[in-house]
Amino acid sequence: MTTAISAKARQVRLVILDVDGVLTDGGLTFDNRGEEYKTFNSLDGHGVRLLLDCGLEVAVITGRESGIVEHRMRDLGVRHIYQGSRDKLPAFERLLADTGLAPEQVAYVGDDLPDLPVMRRVGFAIAVQNAHSFVKQHCDWVTTALGGHGAVREVSDFLLQAQGLLEARQNGYLE
User: Fold this and answer.
1) Which CATH number is 3-174 given?
2) pLDDT in tens, 66-116
3) Coil, helix or strand at residue 102
């Protein structure tokens, strides 16, 4: 990893995640009644908890609305949940105001075109491996893992490693 990327990662105090295609594989599953189902990766979930346990804020900004997302994020301890945000910039601005953070202290993980306006304003823009090619061209770093398949955990581990917090947290599980 380049020195510049590591420097960006060290500044991060807030990680914003898209949902469909980042926390999930992007598939949308519905039953005959129109009920929606989503599958979340447990490694990603633990990555979110690690970030929170290490003092970083985590938020989601998603264009869709889903009770499933609300339930999963609350279960993980995420307090900043913005749903139905097709234009993600207003939610991003509210997050900055609520947290008192500067854009340089924020990482955003996305996969598709609606994520780009925020990705272009944060200090550390991250695309998942299966993101749209145009999005990958306009980010700082691309994960090796696919969205919904450990990409958020990869981001979590990278950020915590860059900030010198990962090894102690992992070793805590050996005691």
Assistant:
1) 3.40.50.1000
2) 999 999 999 999 999 999 999 999 999 999 999 999 999 999 999 999 999
3) coil
Q: How much is the pTM?
A: 0.96
* Phi, psi dihedral angles at 55 (to 5 degrees): 90, 5
Beta partners for residue 124, in sequence order: 107
Structure tokens at 65: 């609305």
Gap between the Cα atoms of 15 and 159, Å rounded: 9
pLDDT tens digits, 29-71: 899 998 888 999 999 999 999 999 999 999 999 999 999 999 9
Cβ(8)–Cβ(119) below 8 Å: no
What are φ and ψ of residue 18, in 5° steps?
A: -75, 165
Task: Using alpha carbons, select from 20, 106, 26 the residue that is nearest to residue 63.
Answer: 20
| Phi, psi (deg, nearest 5) at residue 143 | -70, 160
